[in-house]
Amino acid sequence: MLSPTPPPDARRPLALSLLAAAFLCLLPASRSAEFREVHLLQTTDIHGTFTDDDGAADGAWLRLATVIQAQRRRLGPDSSLLIDCGDTSQGSITATVSRGEAAIAALRHLAYDVWIPGNHELDFGHRTFARLTEQAADIVLCGNLRLADGPAMPGWKMFTRNGVDIAVIGATASYMKNWLLPAEARQYHVETAAALLTRILPEIHRARPDVIVLAAHQAWFEGRDPRNINEIASLAERFPDLDLILGAHSHRLLPGLRIGHRTWYVQAASYAQYLGIVTLTVDTEANEVVDIASHTRQVTRADAEDAGLAQALQPWLEQARAERARVIAPVLAAPIPASGRPGSSCATSELLCAAIAAAAPAQVVIHGRLTQKSLSREVTGADLFALVPYENAIVLAEVTRAELEAIIGEQWQFRDSYRFAGLYGARARLDANGNATVLGLGQDGPPPAPEARLTLAMNSHTAAGSGSFPVLQAILQKPETRVRDTGLSTRQAVEDFLRRHPDQAVAPFPWLTAEP
């Protein structure tokens, strides 16, 4: 996700110094304050970016590891906490070949104190999620999510560093039902972060911590979040006893700013490109924070890779190297560019839809362009993953012509968004108001009968709705729609299509046309 430029206040360390100094001058002379410093180090949204080959410019967990180790030596291990705020285990070829386990190995090797699972930790399915959280059982904090058939994960934990008692609360995004298909969503119990805080803050206050920290896989935004995915802004207003919130999910770089009444907020971007560093000055006699300062340390090519972590990850790194180099299609008939609009002028969207239609099989497909990746004459495993970087499966539904028209019209509202799913297999026209009319099936076939049901395919993320597609969701909830998860991987469908049709040029067809 593209991130707006941080506000000016986020660029400089500060936070409560002047106010704290004025307050301290008013204290009785007989009172002896005990000031101590502690440091919190944050990573987030690493998405399995272990090496330079895993994706982001300059970002790599092997380089970030070197930065982390140096900061811990500088600050002192007894004065710092290392926290990761999720979306850690999915998003790269290395992560995929290890089914997320490489990320847990990295957390272990670097001795993280806390790990908050993010929404992408669920991408490999609930059984894999159970295995990953079991492997990280002593560092995982996630009080608002648990497996339906498993024990609750801890919601908070007290740490003592340099004589300061720090209560760390862990919460993930509470929006899971809008990212998961119903059968998978039923495998989890989820509550809002607000409900979690209401439930556990009295217990935390009884323990009398000096600092209260919320580490959450949610983000802060300046304005209202229209899908209500991120609660951070409202949490800072509602729970002023939170001294610090470490945020995530939106991939923004926010080195530090005050939100709500008094809470300090930090978010260390994504893809192992930054380390967040927060310094808190605490009056342990009064059990209160008197100053917070924060900044971020960027990871660059000048930072060497950590040899110890590379050794710990070696089997998976070797598998990933082999997968990147694997040739899927030695020579395409023609390049497949990612330009244009899905459903009318985008060749990669056409490829995705054609592959899904062949694998499912389905008469009609709705699918967009997942990335800006174009394919040239040779296609390797690295190219394929860049084209389909998500663990999406293919979902089928039986819809009428009228229902298909309603689905197309709803998608058209998002035609300039990454969420837009173009059309394949049926020709449709949209009027000036965005109302769709199906003109026919195939490139030149007649329209289906009104009562006929068409097999419609889409990826699992679109079918889950992401909170954006109420019309689609209402249609998929009808029993007669017969929604089913095929379990077929979108990425595998594309690979199979390219192997079966190496000489077939993929060119976009104008399935969707719009009136001016």
Describe the structure.
The chain has 516 residues and is of the alpha/beta class. The chain has two domains: 290 residues, 4-Layer Sandwich (Purple Acid Phosphatase, chain A, domain 2), CATH 3.60.21; 188 residues, Alpha-Beta Complex (5'-nucleotidase,  domain 2), CATH 3.90.780. It contains 16 helices and 23 strands. It has a six-stranded mixed sheet with strand order 5-6-8-9-11-10. Strand 10 and strand 11 form a beta hairpin. It is globular and about 85 Å long. The relative contact order is 0.13. The N terminus is likely disordered.
Protein topology:
Elements: H1 17-25, E1 35-43, H2 61-75, E2 80-84, H3 93-97, H4 101-109, E3 114-115, H5 126-135, E4 145-147, E5 156-161, E6 164-171, H6 182-185, E7 188-190, H7 193-206, E8 211-216, H8 232-238, E9 244-246, E10 253-259, E11 263-268, E12 274-283, E13 288-298, H9 307-312, H10 314-325, E14 327-329, H11 347-359, E15 364-367, E16 379-380, H12 381-387, E17 393-399, H13 401-412, E18 422-424, E19 426-430, E20 436-441, E21 454-459, H14 460-464, H15 470-476, E22 484-489, H16 490-500, E23 512-514
Please state how the strands of the largest beta sheet are arranged side by side.
5-6-8-9-11-10
Shape, principal axes of CA atoms: globular
Task: Describe the main β-sheet briefly.
Answer: 6 strands, mixed
Could you report the average pLDDT, rounded to the nearest whole number?
92
